[in-house]
Design a protein that fits this description.
The complex is a heterotrimer. Chain A has helices spanning 30-34, 39-67, 78-114, 122-145, 158-162, 167-194, 207-239, 252-286, 293-306, 322-350, 359-382, 384-390, 394-424, 430-457, 471-501, 541-549. By secondary structure, chain A is mostly helical. Chain A has a single domain (7-17, 36-555), classed as Cytochrome C Oxidase, Chain A, CATH 1.20.210. In chain C, a hairpin with a 7-residue loop joins strand 1 and strand 2 (19-25). By secondary structure, chain C is mainly α. Chain C is built from 7 helices and 2 strands; from the N terminus they run E-E-H-H-H-H-H-H-H. Classes of the chains: A mainly alpha, B mainly alpha, C mainly alpha. Chains in contact: A-B, A-C, B-C. The A-C interface holds A 111, 116-122, 124, 182, 186-187, 189-190, 193-195, 220-225, 227-229, 231-232, 235, 239-243, 248-251, 254, 257-258, 261, 526, 531 and C 31-34, 38, 41-42, 45-46, 49-50, 52-61, 63-64, 67-68, 71-72, 149-150, 174, 177-178, 180-181, 184-185, 188, 192.
Chain lengths: 556, 119, 254
Amino acid sequence: MSSAATIVSLPDQATARLPKRSYLNNEQGLLSWLLTGDHKRIAILYLISITFFFFIGGAFAGLIRLELLTPQPDLVAADTYNKFFTMHGIIMVFLFLVPSVPATIGNFLIPIMVGAKDLAFPKINLLSWYLYVVGGILILAALVLGGVDTGWTFTTPLSTHYLNTHVITAAMAIFVAGFSSIFTGLNFIVTIHRMRCPGMTWFRLPLFVWSNYAASLLMVLGTPVLAITLTLVLLERVFSIGVFDPTKGGDPLLFQHLFWFYSHPAVYIMILPGMGVISETISTFSRKRVFGYTAVAFSSVAIALFGFFVWAHHMFIMGISNYSALVFSLLTMLVAVPSAIKVFNWAFTMQKGSITFETPMLYSFGFLGLFTIGGLTGVFLASLGMDIHLTETYFIVAHFHFVMVGGMLMAFLAGIHFWWPKMTGRMYPESLSKLAAVTTFIGFILTFMPQFILGYLGMPRRYHAYPPEYQVLNVLSTAGATVLGVGYMLPLLYLGWSLKYGAIAGNNPWQATGLEWQIQSPPLTENFIETPIMDHEAYDYEWLEHKTKNEVTTVG
Amino acid sequence: MAETATYHHTEAEDPSNVTNPEHTSHHIVTPGQYTLVFVTLLILTAVTAAVAFVDLKWANPVIAVFIACLKATIVGLFFMHAKYQSRLIKLTICSGLFMFLSLIVMTLSDYISRSWGLW
Amino acid sequence: MDNSVATTHSHTHETAVPVEHAHISLPQHRHHFETVEQQREAGSFGMWLFLLTEIMFFGGMFFSYLLYRNWYYDAFAVASNQLSIPLGTANTMILITSGFFMALAVWSAEVRKRKMLVWTLVLTVIFGIAFLCIKGDEWHIEWVHHHIPGAHYDIAEFVNPAAFGIHEQPLPPDMAQRTQIFFFLYFALTGMHALHMIIGVCLLFWLIWRARRGDFSAGYVAPVENFGLYWHFVDIIWLFLFPILYLINRHPLH
């Protein structure tokens, strides 16, 4: 039953049952999960692990904001505060954002979206998860042993020569987690190139697949440079040669070049899969094919490509040459263009569509606004003159939280809500989820909008004390963080609740296009009973209507 | 035994030919060709070592790296069969080299423009 | 090992010419691949992608080397001249020979000659281990001469080479200190390379064991083929390491 206010179409709850056989109950026992090759089970394993680390990283965020309630450094010592923001950054970037959409939603859906039975290398997929877990355990070890206080950027020679915290443990953790990312990307690339079902040409793929493909290219080509950089830092710490120490003839900028060569593409690894989710949700909840499919597809690849050539914009004030700064500034302006193209295309997708406001769409609207603001402030920072004033201030902090939290995290939540019925067979409670989405949005704005102003006024980042005139804005920011925390706790609660008490979803509660919505919820282990043959374009709502008109839907 | 229609697809159904990549050639390189490549590599190694003892100033490292690139190309094309692989593999190799060169060249551009030569 | 042919049938190409094509069915066929050929192609593609990550991994160290060699050329030249050309050249030739036998091993698997496969793999690992032994010997020489970076590093023979019987120009003390950076990068680069060789040697032992059982002489060549790619790549890394580390400035100084 669908009305004008919602497109949700659930089977009759009185008679609906979950399917008798699915990937969840195909095999029983803990070992069947821990030794699985099924991409869907691995996705669930990842989902549980990254949620765990998200809340740890979030706890550190709470502690940071707590300290910053007052101008005086009264909650913790300076070194401890450094550990807070370092652990927050490392956990959120490497253990949450980088694997968030690819390893959970991507792992689950990419084989289904291309029409395959599994990823190309299921064992490597499982290895990828174990590497993630080992990386996570090492970070927890670093935490328990006393923490790291270098900042997530490990700037030398501070991290190599002047600190005696657990840099080695943390660097090893990130090294291992990096390989987790590399193997996921490698798996995706091979699957998308070589395992598409008959008829599934590149331009019939859902845009979610294109985005993950672009992100996978970055994962495979960029992450190894991080690995070698961390290795050099480790060796430097152990042998103290001077590769990065100016007093011994080394160059700290060499570290930064190598570090940011990965870490800039890393932000595109984080955002591109989120953009893929948004393409899916905006199309579904506007009942309209994505405007300019080809442009969006090529933009994803363009972002990946250009994203490799802009890294020194993190180093404008660090001592690179003026010539170099000019070149990187120009390239950074260019990389904004494909992102803008995508935003325009999503907007035009909505134009003249029949828009409904289910929770994934609310998160998508949040994404559109907040990512645009975050992206535009990135252009401010790309401009050399502005950057000299704004860099290392709260403006930067606000900028990257707008794109990563207001952008990526919202997209992740949109994706989780959108595909929750497919992954679990159950719907979440809609009114509570809408409340959570709105709470998150309000909390986010309250937390991070004041930080733009703080940064512009000159408050430096990574300081636990500040002049008293900044207190009002800081208090607003901390209040917002509390609201934001509530907004993130709610999904944990109601999604967990829905596993047992949620409405039965059926195959296609959103009446969406895409191969994943043509199979049962939750899917069979082998995904498809027989190999699908793709004979229509992506986002073909006319095909879907024609199909459902002649269909009898039974569940169970 | 009847073959199901699962993987045997017509051009119309599977224009990307993902399920029958065996249509790319399975060229087998002969031991004779391998031996030729092997001897070439040994000769080039000897040349590299010998040239290093001749003073050609700036040309020394250039020649050394050039010969190394030549050897690497030969190993890649013949020992690793890159010459006989699909376009996808060739594209993959080229993109890897491109990325490596980008890392070197773009980072180098910063150093050349501010501090090149003896420190 | 049984190697049954599932069926022969004809199908059309773009040229609309019917072709007889035998599709192989192997026990190692994984269920999520439609055909064994798709599996082989995917495996090969995956290995090439992994090698791409290795290129980028070594790339960072290559750049560091490039930078410091330019900045501290004198130190790097003198330090490089302490390495042994005969050992380095011999090692290069040994590794190339190892690669040659690996290529022959892949050929043996493709033409299903089990004994030759085993022998070529054995020769590959013998030459690989020979390389590692010589490398270990070279490292030992550096240890003896106090060239290991860290607490025991000694710049005396760079500041006053004549006293040690070394035919080099003396370096000023601060430049002599920079030789440590050369040796740091030398050990980092050759060490990382040696680590990859050791992993390769272990994998080779496993492959030899499986080859003797006949796993790879019945049509299933992917592991040998893909390992070959890895082994040749490690060889290529060495082909670059040799000239840049050993041959900086070997012509007689005037």
